[in-house]
Design goal:
Helices cover 10% and strands 37% of the residues. It is mainly beta. It contains two helices and ten strands, in the order αβαβββββββββ. The chain is globular. A three-stranded antiparallel β-sheet has the order 2-3-4. Strands 7-8-9 form a three-stranded antiparallel β-sheet, with helices on one face.
Amino acid sequence: TFTKYTTTGATLELEDDAAHVHMGGNWHMPTPSQINELINTANTTSTWTTQDGVNGRLFTSKKDSSKAIFIPAAGSAMNGLVNNSGDVGRVWSSTLSSGYVGGGLNLYFDLGSISMGYGGLNRYNGVPVRGVIG
């Protein structure tokens, strides 16, 4: 629940991890470390692209170019509206914001930038979840 966590920077328990709850097994929302590994230019190349009519970023491994992940620029939802769909991509991490317990760290990208941070979003805002294993 939203009030369960009172420590900034805390990691969600698996029972509160949306990827784990919906996908089961070893699936979970990515940690900040996993997001940083993905966006580190020493590990991956990142290209803004369109796949099947959907804008987003394609992250491709520099060690093995056959390993890639496309993350759509799906925007985020607030107050019943979807904002920035097609222009901005976000993915929740499993970690709360380090400065505000109601916020969560997330991957953020658009046409010209990629980062991880709080971004002013509350955990109750609609932000995509991408399950990972490992």
